[in-house]
């Protein structure tokens, strides 16, 4: 990725987030070695809690098929194993070869991880009882979020459910500047402590600022014909969407 070198702590940061797949792939390939520990420590454990919220009380049955989009190193599988009945199969999909290579695979259910761009992935319609995702939405611009919503609707069987969560820009005026300073300035230096490139983590903060929150994605899901509910966590520092595909279409 031009201007983002893992060995250079003062690498230039792009003027704005890049949403093309090759840039996103390069970013997460470079961050893979440090992303897990930096994410856990810099979020004070909230990232793990918010992942649990993605699947907690999700109405799926034992033996279901679950698809985890933008799966990273399969972190959501830990939440699935703790809060859901054992699925017959979980399919994880991520764009980063390094994230896929480092993903944990020894789960007590059938697990398959695939290297693919979810917007170009060759999907089987109506193949999923549940579609889940954590912390991948911010790397999609608004047009890409619309495409993603359509693919979620295509993946789900009638009655199937979905749940997403993403780090967000808080709406409270007093909290927002402090939180975004932490995301854009402090987290990059936490990344540097763990030998990551702070420029990469600073870019994640820029993605977060540009993303805002899950409201636009919620609207895209509704346009795709899905029933949608919205959630906010810790005063809007993370937001989520959850819902289902109707059993019948109008």
Helical/strand content category: alpha/beta
Q: What is the CATH H-level superfamily?
A: Vaccinia Virus protein VP39
Number of helices: 8
What is the highest CATH level, the class?
Alpha Beta
The overall pLDDT average reads: 88
**Secondary structure: helix percent:** 40-55%
Task: Give the H and E element order.
Answer: HHEHEHEEHEHHHEE
Number of domains: 1
Percent range for β-strand residues = 15-25%
Distance between the termini: 45 Å
Main pleated-sheet profile: 7 strands, mixed
How many β-strand stretches?
Answer: 7
Tell the overall outline. globular
Rg, Å, rounded: 17 Å
CATH topology: Rossmann fold
Poorly predicted tracts of residues: 1-11
At CATH's second level, what is the architecture? 3-Layer(aba) Sandwich
Strand order of the largest sheet: 3-2-1-4-5-7-6
What is the element layout, followed by pairings?
Elements: H1 21-42, H2 46-55, E1 65-69, H3 76-83, E2 89-94, H4 97-102, E3 111-115, E4 128-134, H5 142-155, E5 156-167, H6 176-193, H7 198-211, H8 215-223, E6 227-233, E7 238-244
Helix pairs in contact: 2-3, 5-8, 6-7
């Amino acid at each position: 990725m031009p201007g983002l070198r893992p060995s250079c702590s003062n690498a230039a940061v792009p003027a704005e987030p890049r949403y093309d797949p090759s840039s996103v792939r390069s970013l997460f390939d470079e961050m893979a070695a440090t992303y897990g520990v930096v994410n856990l420590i810099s979020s004070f454990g909230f990232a793990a809690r918010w992942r649990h919220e993605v699947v907690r009380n999700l109405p799926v049955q034992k033996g279901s098929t679950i698809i985890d989009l933008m799966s990273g190193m399969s972190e959501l599988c830990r939440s699935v194993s703790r809060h859901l009945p054992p699925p017959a199969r979980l399919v994880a999909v991520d764009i980063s070869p390094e994230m896929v290579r480092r993903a944990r695979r020894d789960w007590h259910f059938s697990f398959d991880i695939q290297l693919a761009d979810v917007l170009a992935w060759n999907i089987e319609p109506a193949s999923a009882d549940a579609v889940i995702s954590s912390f991948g939405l911010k790397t999609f611009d608004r047009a890409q979020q619309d495409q993603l919503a359509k693919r979620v609707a295509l993946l789900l069987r009638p009655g199937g459910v979905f749940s997403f969560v993403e780090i967000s820009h808080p709406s409270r005026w007093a909290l927002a500047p402090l939180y975004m300073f932490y995301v854009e300035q402090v987290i990059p230096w936490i990344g540097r402590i763990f030998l990551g490139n702070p420029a990469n983590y600073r870019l994640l903060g820029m993605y977060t600022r540009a993303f805002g929150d899950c409201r636009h994605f919620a609207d895209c899901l509704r346009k795709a014909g899905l029933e949608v509910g919205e959630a906010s966590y810790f005063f809007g520092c993370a937001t989520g969407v959850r819902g289902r595909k109707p059993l019948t279409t109008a």
